[in-house]
């Protein structure tokens, strides 16, 4: 794992964008993308760049169950607003939170990823060490699945909703197995509240109780953090 410590989120966003830009110039065509507050500076750099994305495919990590794509809290909406509206891609995929048969949809999403292997996967990390919505205890070998969100994650995500009751209780998530199959992974994390998760991911034992710890086994992971998120690393 390569760890890059940047002064602040803005610098980190620039560094992350440089990695994506180089990979794309070197031929990457399929990108795994994430939502949340962490990737915002990366997407800001992306939309301000002159990078042509018309030949790229993106596959997002996750989506809440029950939210329409036009719901401002949905991850579809987030991706349109922060990246795709300004930078049209050839094809973009975000899990369908309204799928009537979720297990069948999850199989289709796994097939989609098999047919379009991810060249570079972007990740954030939860305070409890989750990646995507793979919560502590999720088997490492799982594919796309529906996940009941933990109280910890519901509380953390309630900041984006008017009421905590409005936070969906489950999500569709690309499993850890799909993340690990990506050729290259870039994980970003900012702030003191992520410091313990970063320490466990980098220095702790590999355990399903810390989903991100599996990344120690991936051959090409770059972690971009600010000083606060790096503060517990030895
Ligand atoms: C988002 C995702 C989540 C977030 C994580 C951190 O697509 O998969 O795992 O990356 O919850 O969220 P933020 O960036 O809001 O701190």
UniProtKB/TrEMBL annotation:
InterPro entries: Glc/Gal-6P_isomerase (IPR006148), Glucosamine6P_isomerase (IPR004547), Glucosamine6P_isomerase_CS (IPR018321), NagB/RpiA_transferase-like (IPR037171). The keyword Hydrolase applies. GO terms for cellular component: cytoplasm. Its EC number is 3.5.99.6. Pathway: Amino-sugar metabolism; N-acetylneuraminate degradation; D-fructose 6-phosphate from N-acetylneuraminate: step 5/5. CDD domains: GlcN6P_deaminase (cd01399). The active site is at 62 (proton acceptor), 128 (for ring-opening step), 130 (proton acceptor), 135 (for ring-opening step). GO terms for biological process: carbohydrate metabolic process; glucosamine catabolic process; N-acetylglucosamine catabolic process; N-acetylneuraminate catabolic process. It catalyses: alpha-D-glucosamine 6-phosphate + H2O = beta-D-fructose 6-phosphate + NH4(+). It comes from the Bacteria. PANTHER family: GLUCOSAMINE-6-PHOSPHATE ISOMERASE (PTHR11280:SF5). Catalyzes the reversible isomerization-deamination of glucosamine 6-phosphate (GlcN6P) to form fructose 6-phosphate (Fru6P) and ammonium ion. This is Glucosamine-6-phosphate deaminase. It comes from Lactobacillus gigeriorum DSM 23908 = CRBIP 24.85.
